[in-house]
Amino acid sequence: MQNRNLKALICKIILFYSIFYGAMKIIAVLFQDAWPLPNLILAIPFVIFAIIGGFMLKHDSYSWVYVAAGVIIISIVRYYEIQWMQQLHEYFS
């Protein structure tokens, strides 16, 4: 029982973080004149995690694969975010 609660908790944290990150990127583009295309491209993995997490929450079934992928992808994107943002901006400019 404890293992299921931990898995559900981490899945919900990834879900809400993904929603928050996506919302912050949209707000930055709309109200702070951030680069639109690089910000929206970097938000794609978070949107995917939010959609998958929403389905998992709706069906009340959680997966360790989602947890592992979420932690790894979120960590990588956040670590390289500034570099990728600049590279994408230069590529699309």
Radius of gyration: 15 Å
Biggest sheet character: none
List unreliable stretches of 5+ residues.
none
Outline, from the CA principal axes? elongated
What is the mean predicted local confidence, pLDDT?
90
Oligomeric state of the chains present here: single chain
Share in β-strands:
under 5%
Query: Which structural class should the secondary elements be placed in?
Result: mainly alpha
Give the helix proportion (percent range). Answer: over 70%
Helix and strand run: HHH
What is the helix tally? 3
Total strands: the figure is: 0
What gap, in angstroms, lies between the N and C termini?
52 Å
List the helices and strands and how they pair.
Blueprint: H1 2-31, H2 36-59, H3 64-92
Helix pairs in contact: 1-2, 1-3, 2-3
What can you see in these coordinates?
The protein is elongated. The protein has about 90 residues and is an all-alpha fold. The protein has three helices and no strands.
